[in-house]
Amino acid sequence: MGFRRVFLMATITLGCGSTIAQQPQGIVLLGQSAPGAPGAVFSSVGRPAINNLGDIAFRADLSGTGLHSGIFHVASGMTPTNVALFGDTIANVPQQLTDFGNPVLNDTRQIAFNARIGDGYDNQGVFLKTTSGITPIARTGESAAGTPSTFGNRFCTFGLALNNSGIVAFEATLQGSVAGDGVFKYSNGKIDPVAVTGQAAPGTQGGLFSRFTGLSMNQSGQIAFVATLDSGGATQGVFLASSAGITAIALHGQTIPNDADAIDTILQPSIDDLGNVAFVDSIPIRGRVGANTLPRRILIASAGILSSFASVGTQIGSETAILKGNFQDPRLVSSAGNSGALFVAWRSQRGKNALLLYSRGGISQILQEGDPSPVGGVYSFIGNQVFSPSGYYAFVSNLEGSAAKSGIFIDKISW
Amino acid sequence: MKAQIALAFSMFCTFLCLDQNVALGQTQPQSSYSFTGLTAGIRSSYFGFFADDFVSSFANQNGNEIKLTVQLNDPGYQFVPCSVVGTYTYNTLTVPSLSAAAINVQGESVLSSGPEFSGSMTVHTLGGQTFYIMPPTSITATSSSGRGTECAAWYNAWESGSWTVPFFWDGTANKLIAPYANYWHNDHFWDVGWNSNITIRNNGSQSVNYTINYVRDFSQAVLSYNPGNSCTTTTLPTSASNTVGPGGTWSTTLRNILNPNASHTVDEDGFIYVVDSPIIPGTSPSMTITPNANGSSGCGGSCALIFSCR
User: Fold this and answer.
1) ipTM value of the model?
2) By the number of CB atoms within 10 A of the CB, which of A178, A280, A403, B13 ranks highest?
3) Inter-chain contact B55–A289, Cβ cutoff 8 Å?
C-alpha cells in the first residue's frame, strides 16, 4: 500500500520543466450498483464525457435486471445518478428508449446522447437533457432541415458534440429523395445543416462531400469534421465549419512542411477553443481481407500550418523512451495560457499503451498499462480518454488483479 | 412503472430469445474471447510453397462504438517488426456502433518467410462491452498443393475456400446477426474472389418480411470501382427485403444485394443483420461463403505478404 501511495503521488515533467501530480481516482467501476435501477450493476462502461467542473457522463451496460443500458452522470465529488435508462419513455416519442450511444456534457450539466428507439436498430434519435428534462432533437423519419430528405436510421456516435451555449452538433444519415449523410447543428430548438452529401467541398478542386466520419465542436460553435469526397482532387479531408463558411484544413495527399509523408487517411478530429485542430493520420492496409488502418502519427493544424507532434520515434520529454505507434484519439484543449492534447500511444514497448500529454512543445507521460491502479490491480488496457480545458481528464481502463474488471478514472492536471 | 416495463420486456425477451437461441444453438456475446491452435505463414518444401492463414471478424451490436485489443501469442515467434517476439498486439480497433472489423494475420503481423506462427489469439474490449465474433478457427485457409511463389501459395490457399458463418440472435435489439460476410470480385489480386450465400427459412405459422442489411467494416461506404474508367467509384445499395410465407425459404447472396456492375471491382468485408417483421419464433437463417465462378484482375491492391521483419 505504501508503494502504491508513493507511486500515485509521483510527479512527471512537462516538456518545458513544469510538473503535474498524478493521483487518478476510480470514479465508476464494473460491478458497482447502478442508480435508478434496483438490483442492476454496471457491466460495462463506454467513453465518458467530461466538463470543466470535473463532472463526467457515461453510457453503461447493466446486468442483473431487464434494464440493459443507461446514461449516467457523476457530478464532481459525488456518486453517479441516472440520466436515462432502457425502457424510459420521452414526451413526443412514441416508443421507449432501448439503447444509447456515448453522451456528451457541458459546463451547465446539459447532456446530449444518441439513443435507439423501440424494438430494433433502425429507429434512432438525438436527445438533449436539460433542467427541463429530456427533449428529442432529431429522430429517424423527421424532416432534415435544409435538405429535401428525412433523417435516416443512423445517428453516428462518433459525431456528437455539445458546447456551453447548448449547441448540439451531430451526424446523421439521410433518406428520401437525396440519400447520404449530413452534419447538422441544433441551437435553441432549431436545426440547420452544416454540410451534406453532394454539397461542394471548398478547397478541393471540385470535390463533393460524400460521407462524414467524425466531428468535434468548440465553445464558439466552430465544427471540425472529417468527410470523404467524390470527384475533385482528394478522396478525404478534415474541414472547419464556422460562421464564415467551410474551409479545408487538411486533405488526403497533402504534404506537410519538413515531412516526407503526405497525409493519408484522417481520423478522430479534435478542435480547441482557439480553432486549432488535431487529428490522427492513418495508413490503410490494402490487398488483404479487412479494412484496418495503421495510425501512424498525430497532426495539428494551427493558424493554417500543419505539423506533427507525435509519430513513431518521438521522444517522451527528456527520457530515452520513444513513441512506437498506435496513436489514438487526440483530445485538444486550450485555456488561458495553456493548451495541450491528451492522447494514447505505445511507448518504447509495442503493445503497451500509455496516456500521454502534449503541451508546451513536449510530450509527458501520465501513466501506462502495467502501472498500479488506485482500486487495486494494474491498468491493462487504457483508452477512451477525455480532457477539459480546466485540466480535468478521465479515461477508461481494464484492470488485472482487481475485483473490478474495468472502470472510469479521473484526475486533474495542474497546468 | 420502470420495473413493470423491464419485467414485461424481460418476460417477452426470455420467451423469444430462448426460442431463437435454441433454434440457432448460439451463445450470448462476450467481452473477451480466446482461441488456440491457430496457424499462419508460408511453408517451403521440395513441392513448393504452402500457405496457412486465418481471418477473424468482430461485430459490434451496441449503441456506441467499442475499442478492441487483439493479441497473437506464440512464445519465441518473431513477428513483424523483428523486435516483437512472442506476443503481437494489433493497433487498437475502434468499431462503430452496428458495424464490424475484420483482421487477417497475413499482411500485417506474420512473416511469410521462416517459421509459421502457431499459437493463440485473444480479443478484449475496453470497458467490458460485449460483441459477437467470427472465430479465427472458422475461417481458415490452407494450400491444396505446392506453388512456385509465396503469393501464389497464399492465393491458392484462399481461392477454393468455403466457410460457414454462424447467425446469432441479439436479444437486446431482436435482430439476427452474422458477424462476417464478404463479396470480393474482380480485385486486382483476388480476381475471382468469394460471395456470401444467405438462406432464411420461415418455419413459423405466418408470413414474415425479412430485410437483410449489410454493413461494411468500420461503417465505411460500400463502393464498386470501375477498372475501365480509372477505378472511379459507385455507391452500392446495402439492403434487400422479401416476404416469406410459412414454410418458405429466401435464398440470396451478398452480390445480389449489392448489385454491382458485373465488370466492376468489389472488395467487401463486413457483417449482416436481419430485421424480421413481425418477430415470431421459427426463423432459421444460414450463411456460407464460397468462391465465385470466375473473375478478372481489376482495381485494388497487390499481394500483401511481408517477407522480411523490417
Assistant:
1) 0.92
2) A280
3) yes
